[in-house]
Specification:
alpha+beta, Jelly Rolls, seven-stranded antiparallel beta sheet, 2 helices
């Protein structure tokens, strides 16, 4: 039986830092069920920090509807961990964080690298959106440095797409301002075994 999240087509890129994009990472029925729950009933809380303002919640702290619970199951996370370990040639601990994010019109995430001494070492961002169009904003941007003009990769927030990357002092990324609609994502954060 196929996992709800399929990362088998992941291929490692190294510029501007180690990452991989998987265009069709999520199965259709779970995508639709998750979007419906996010839009109607998910327990969003506004979080404001120096470089972002967004709605979020920890997916481990809530009872997920049965039709999307597999997104947080031990089996699904184990499959992700194994593939990410193989892709980046780094053993990962069983610890994983799972956070749902929602950006609404006017919100953005400024350039940052996610690096914290002793913190997460690898991240998987699963994008979920309904009817996204080019003018809606919310692009995921990867940079070669801290300067906005050093953008190297621009990823549209296409639903079911996954970005996997290694967190380091080089992993500069951002999300451009959302112009219309809502931009959803699920962020899985992994820890290397040697940290």
């Amino acid at each position: 039986m196929r996992s709800v999240v399929d990362l088998s087509s992941a291929r490692l890129e190294t510029d501007p830092f180690p990452f991989s994009v998987v265009p069709e990472a999520l199965c259709n029925d779970v995508e639709q069920a998750t979007l419906s729950w996010f839009e109607r009933a998910a327990p969003w809380n506004l979080t404001e920090e120096s470089f972002y303002s967004q709605y979020e919640f920890d997916m481990r702290d809530v009872e997920l509807p049965s039709d999307i619970a597999e997104l947080a199951s031990g089996k699904t996370v184990a499959v992700m961990r194994e593939l990410i370990s193989e892709l980046f040639q780094r053993k990962l601990r069983s610890t994983v964080d799972m956070t749902a994010h929602r950006l609404t019109a006017g919100q953005r995430i400024r350039i940052h690298d996610d690096y914290l001494e002793g913190g997460e070492t690898h991240r998987l961002i699963l994008q979920l959106n309904r009817g996204w169009a080019a003018g809606d904003g919310g692009h995921l941007l990867l940079f070669g440095g801290r300067e906005p003009e050093d953008v190297r990769v621009v990823l549209a927030p296409v639903s079911k797409q996954a970005l996997i990357f290694e967190i380091s002092h080089r992993s500069h990324h951002a999300v451009s301002k959302v112009v219309r609609g809502e931009r959803y994502s699920i962020v899985y954060s992994f820890h290397a075994a040697d940290r």
